[in-house]
Amino acid sequence: MEPQQFQQAFRRLEAEVQKVIVGHDDLIRKILIAFFAGGHVLLEGVPGLGKTLLVKSLSQALGMSFKRIQFTPDLMPSDIVGTEVLTEDSGRREFQFKRGPIFAHVVLADEINRATPKTQSAVLEAMEEKQVTVFGDSHILETPFIVLATQNPIELEGTYPLPEAQLDRFFFKLLVTAPAPAELKEILKRTTGTATSEISRVLPEDGGQLVGEMQQLLRQVMIAPPIEDYVVRLVHATQADAVNGGPSKSLVKQYIRYGASPRGAQAIILGAKGNALTENRVHVSYEDIERVLYPALRHRLILNFQAEAENISTDQVIGEVLKHVSRN
Amino acid sequence: MQVLSRPSSPERPETLVHRLVAQLSRQVLWDSLLLFVPPAAAVVYVLALLFQAAWLSRTGAIVAAIFTLGLGAFAVLLRRPPLLPTVRRAAHLVDQKSGAKDHFLTLATIDPASQPLVLLTRLRLQTEGFLNRIQLRRDFPYKFKSSAYWSLGTSLITVVLFHLLLPIAQSARYGATVQERLRELAQQMAAKPELRGLTKELQTVLSKLDDPKISPQEKQALAQDMERKLNEQQKKEEQKDNRDLLSQAASALDGLEKQQQLASGQDQQKDQQKGGGGIQSNAPQDGQGENKQSQGGSGESKGESAAPSQETMDQGQSAQAKPKEQGQEKNQAGDAKNNQNQPDPNQPGKDPNKEKAGKTEGGAKDGAGKQQASEEPPPQGGPQADRFYKPGEGKEGLATKGYVTVQMPEELVADAKGESRTGKESKNTRARTQVPVSNVPLPAHVPNAPTEKQQVPIEYRGIIR
Asked: Residue A201: what pLDDT?
């Protein structure tokens, strides 16, 4: 696949989703980058901002199977991955695997933090290994596969915050913000009238193969060793106990309990590669790195109690890291 | 911004980056050279000065110079490597200048073998589009660093300071020791049979140099002559030891020569202070007898340096007694005669003639002394020809010209204290008149004349009234 083809397909997908979703251009772009990088996205925002609509629209534009799972405290793992049921066929009774909603290309895990940790962890294997194991049998998930989980930053009572191990499996964590006045006006115009927007399918029937090629091209994007070094320095600087290269006497030392994992560095580079392709470049630049740094690291930095007490956000700490780590 | 058109330049982007690395390396070398060469050159120059002044032996100076140059070269070598630009740095600079988004950096640093050819070709095409925006000479010109200016300035100041201060330090240090050093060298030379003849001559010169009756000029000439002989012998000598010895002796003699020059200069200054201390002016006075200073004094001493000796000049009376030898003195004596009718009101009872004659070789106007010294000396032993006098002057001195004599404050203090001076000086001082002296008539004293009335301050007028 040629880079131009990638860019064309990407632009068309963006345009189709933007038919329904007003604003959030950067959000849409980053979700698509994560999709083509083979990652999953955690969307955080208050209710009513169009998270679910966004994911639905994306799946429609991709022309791929879409399942939505509403996470509740009584949701069981088998409700997600599926279970074996006893079936009778021509006088013979046997257990047959009944696939759960996780078997789809695009899975929306709505309010993922409302399910119990047991159920949440059932998604872990699916996200990372792209397979599920039921009664000892492993079942491969669809390809391509993306989990778009949402969580509500308010109403934390009765919720189960995602453990760090599970958070780390998300490629990006994106914040869904309230629309600007002009955007809100446009939303009202589109949703309170009789006119409806139809999302047309961008990818062909056999879209999986095309997406696979696009994912392959994304990984081929070149990155210069100095830029790789920069990523390493950035990630290393988030380590609270970093001796060399860590910004001493800064917010990092003061507020971080655990820094970014190697998965964080992988996410930065893959995300940067995706960003480069969307700009019709076949190499990563420093700007690409800085553009994806926040969504890639925001959920991977675990702040300490002092940071919480002082209301310091991870974005502030990442900003501090960017300030301290030089490009050269 | 994407640029895909192939530029006319056949140069590859990687080549441009490597050319920039070479250019920046040269700039770093220049930076280092400009930083360390001026101080090294300054040190070498100072060493040469010290060698000339006989503070250093030839070997010592050469060793120190070589050491300095070596140190400079070492500093350049030590400083350069950390500052040498890397390919990354150069590529980054090209990216910045051309507005590329790390195109050059990627192309210059990735391993092409491990990259897909299609993407690599595409990247190269994109990068070549930026080549037209870059001209290495234009975009990366050499700029002098402030450190170079500092280095050059400091070195120049050091050289100038040494140049100015070394003669002073030399006169202070070698005041007594140059001759001792020469004696030591003479002893060493005496041990060498082939230098014995020259040693005797040197010892003779040294004994003459110690003779106080011989004037500094003669001593200087003797030293010059001996130095020349030593240099000639040095050229002839084949043994290195002898050459060194002769070189040191020549250097020491050179120092001595300078010392003599300095001594004669100091004599001249003393002449000036003694004779020209009484600065005279012919400016019309208001009759208050105030001390007035002018620059007349400095000029005369030059003329006097050509005149026979200090003694005669200092002693005004003796100068008067030998008018034929001292044409200039005669002028001043005549001047004093002219002023006889204007006795100093502040110094009743003293003979102004004598006093002025003692002081006023400076009293002759600027031109008188200078002209004689610089153009043509007056014929000795006979009356001075008219052509040596300035307009308005004659054998009778400064006729019809008013003047005032000013004595330096320190002389007044010394006079008042009666501090120790040489006998001749004391006599001169005593012979001098008290200042100010003027031939300008004072306003007539009218007894009971109304004095200037001081105004009563306005706020007190009513009260007093």
From this structure: 84
pLDDT digits (tens, 9 = 90+) for A125-162: 788 888 888 888 888 998 889 999 998 888 777 888 88
Question: Residue B264 in contact with residue B221, Cβ under 8 Å?
Answer: no
Q: Do B126 and A224 touch (CB under 8 A)?
A: no
Give me the residue label for tokens 């050179």: B254
Among A222, A229, A273, most B C-beta atoms within 10 A, so best to mutate, is A222
Interface touch A222/B106, C-beta < 8 Å: yes
CATH of A221-324, one of 3.40.50.620, 3.40.50.300, 1.10.8.80, 2.60.40.10: 1.10.8.80
Residue B378: which region, alpha, beta or left (left: phi > 0; alpha: psi -120 to 50)?
beta
| Helix H or strand E encompassing B289 | none
Tokens of A263: 């998965």
Average pLDDT score over chain A: 88
Considering only CB atoms, A282 lies closest to which of B92, B105, B119, namely: B119
Asked whether the whole model's pTM tops 0.80, one would answer no
Helix (H, G, I), strand (E, B) or coil at A253: helix
* pLDDT tens-digit series, residues A76-96: 999 999 988 888 888 888 888
Please spell the DSSP secondary structure of A154-222, one letter per residue: S--TT--PPPHHHHTT-SEEEEPPPPPHHHHHHHHHHHSSS--PPPPP-S-TTHHHHHHHHHHHHHH-B
Q: Which chain B residue has its CA at the smallest distance from A288's CA?
A: B101
CB burial of B103-114 (b: ≥16 within 10 Å; e: otherwise) equals bbbbbbbbeeee
Strand ranges across the sheet with B279-281:
B279-281, B404-406, B437-438
A222 touches chain B (CB under 8 A): yes
pLDDT in tens, A213-225: 999 999 999 999 9
Residue among B302, B447, B317 at smallest CA distance from B364: B302
3-state secondary structure of B139: helix
Least confident of A56-65, B119-128, B327-336: B327-336
Chain A residues within 8 A of B118 when measuring between CB atoms: 2
CA distance B167 to B182: 19
Cα–Cα distance measured from residue A28 to residue A202, given in angstroms and rounded to the nearest whole number = 15
pLDDT at A104 over 60: yes
Homologous superfamily of domain range A3-194: P-loop containing nucleotide triphosphate hydrolases (3.40.50.300)
Q: Name the B residues in 86-145 with CB < 8 Å from any A CB.
A: 88-89, 92, 101-103, 105-106, 109-110, 115-116, 118-120, 122-123, 126
Per-residue pLDDT, averaged over B276-305, amounts to 40
- Helix, strand, coil % in chain A, rounded to nearest 5: 45, 15, 35
**C-alpha torsion A157→A160→A161→A164, nearest 10:** 160
